[in-house]
From TrEMBL:
GO biological process: aromatic amino acid metabolic process
Protein name as it appears in the record: Phenylalanine 4-monooxygenase
Domain of life: Bacteria
Record-annotated Biopterin-dependent aromatic amino acid hydroxylase family profile domain positions: 1-250
GO molecular function: iron ion binding; oxidoreductase activity, acting on paired donors, with incorporation or reduction of molecular oxygen, reduced pteridine as one donor, and incorporation of one atom of oxygen
Keyword Cell wall biogenesis/degradation recorded: no
Cofactor: Fe(2+)
Keyword Metal-binding: yes
Taxonomic lineage of the native organism: Bacteria, Pseudomonadati, Pseudomonadota, Betaproteobacteria, Neisseriales
Family: Belongs to the biopterin-dependent aromatic amino acid hydroxylase family.
Keywords: Iron, Metal-binding, Monooxygenase, Oxidoreductase
């Protein structure tokens, strides 16, 4: 595992200043989190729900990234760093390869409860952080970082394929559980509209196939009508490892 400190995005959360959140911002967190806590049981997968519980998030106060990072680290060694917004590809992959996830520390405006075009800390912490505590997902995500670094360093065609794989797994993945279809993608679990839509008849659900995913473009502006379903997080990691070997990546 390479250290992620060779990117300017790595900050020491123990000393990085925590924003002085307003009552309105805490209220936005309270409302968003209450709504998702209501929706997610029976729809999100058990691995995600167990991860969410491990984070011990406050129901009424915006969390501090340093606290969440420490909780995640106990389970998988993954940590958070604080970023102001989207991260450039090579830095993003370098962070992931070093088991570090870039999180924002700001919350959306009250009139953006249903939708925000750019990730905020609700998306990052409710969407991404829980599965960082799951060992197989964590291993897959680190491997994804190494593959991305290798692809961007060599101008490999996977520079086009990997964002699609990210989209259809990390952001919009579904999983077949013993009890039925469940959600694990961060773009779904952090959005009430996508939670209900992703499990509805409006969506065509495909068996997990990384070649098919790599060839399928995605639309960031609308609800997702085509989703891919994994059988397990073992499958996600094992298939991705095999796909990387085939593509000569990482
Ligand atoms: Fe995301």
């Amino acid at each position: 595992m390479s250290a992620p400190s060779d990117t300017a995005y790595m900050v020491d959360l123990a000393t990085f200043p925590v924003p002085d959140y307003s009552d309105t911002e805490h209220e936005t967190w309270t409302r968003l989190y209450a709504r998702q806590r209501e929706l997610l049981p029976g729809r999100a997968c058990d691995e995600y729900l167990a991860g969410l519980a491990r984070l011990e998030l406050s129901e009424t106060r915006l969390p501090r990234l340093v606290d969440i990072s420490r909780r995640i680290e106990q389970y998988t060694g993954w940590r958070l760093t604080r970023v102001a917004g989207l991260v450039e590809n090579d830095d993003f992959f370098t962070l992931l390869a070093g088991r570090c996830f870039p999180s924002t520390d700001f919350i959306r405006k009250p009139d953006e409860l249903d939708y925000t075009p750019a990730p905020d800390m609700f998306h990052d912490l409710i969407g991404h952080a829980p599965l960082l505590t799951h060992s197989r997902f964590a291993a897959f995500f680190e491997r994804f970082g190494h593959a991305g670094k290798a692809a961007f360093a060599s101008g490999h065609p996977a520079t086009e394929w990997l964002p699609r794989i990210y989209w259809y797994t990390v952001e919009f993945g579904l999983i077949r559980a013993a009890e039925g279809l469940r959600i694990y993608g961060s773009g779904i679990v952090s959005s009430p509209g996508e939670v209900l839509h992703s499990l509805s008849d409006a969506v065509t659900r495909h068996d997990f196939d990384l070649d098919a995913i790599a060839a399928r473009d995605y639309d960031i502006w609308h609800m997702q009508n085509d989703l891919f379903v994994i059988d397990s997080f073992d499958q996600l990691e094992d298939d991705f490892a095999a796909w990387c070997r085939e593509a000569r990546l990482g």
